[in-house]
Amino acid sequence: MSIRVLLVEDDADFRVGLEGFLSGVGHSVRSVADAEHLEHELEAHPPHILVLDLNLPGPDGFSVAHALRERTSIGVVVLTGRTAREDRVRGLELGVDHYFTKPFDPAELDLVIRNLHRRLTQAAMPAPVDSARLGKWALDGAQWVLVSPEGTRVRLSSTEYQLVSRLAARQGRPVARADLIQRNDARDPLVAERGLDVLVFRLRKRVEAECGCKLPVMSVRGLGYVFDAPIEILPA
């Protein structure tokens, strides 16, 4: 089955060229030029993956990403000419799965789409019941999924996964804010200082909505956060 990709890009020449490439490597691709037409496509032809430009007429890509994360868990890949660190961090704060800057390698985009779709598909599968793990949270490192004690699976963005994995590695012990916002590599900070609390707030809200239970990530005044419940880290 081909992966359904929806491309949101206002540059007509670029949109047609990228749509042709993605179709040529086997994806089922549709495209729109702005957020207004995006709404119709989401209802009429729900995609697996959204490839999103940020500089759109009307509501920009950040607004689109925020609205999508409030109501859906489809994969979101940003593809933009905005290279500023602040834009990249803002996108990660909003929960996008990958952030490409132009110019980019189309073959790499194809691989990201395939890997993201595989992870989303596996994340949607029911979690096996493990009697030894009942009553515990679990973090699935292979699928970037947080599993509640009742077995409900919550898909995590890359930034959310890094946050939870750092807290889970020291479960029951506080992790300093400085450790939570340290750079994952030279280019990609986990999350900016100003965005850490926003990231935690949004994750708590989404976990409660999807699981019907509270995420046991607690604030420790003057220090950082703690995962205040048993959690098992499943191998990647």
UniProtKB/TrEMBL annotation:
It holds the Pfam family Response_reg. CDD domains: REC_OmpR (cd17574), trans_reg_C (cd00383). The keyword Transcription applies. Residues 129-229 form the OmpR/PhoB-type domain. One of its GO terms (biological process) is regulation of DNA-templated transcription. Residues 4-117 form the Response regulatory domain. Keywords: DNA-binding, Phosphoprotein, Transcription, Transcription regulation, Two-component regulatory system. The keyword Transmembrane helix does not apply. This is DNA-binding response OmpR family regulator.
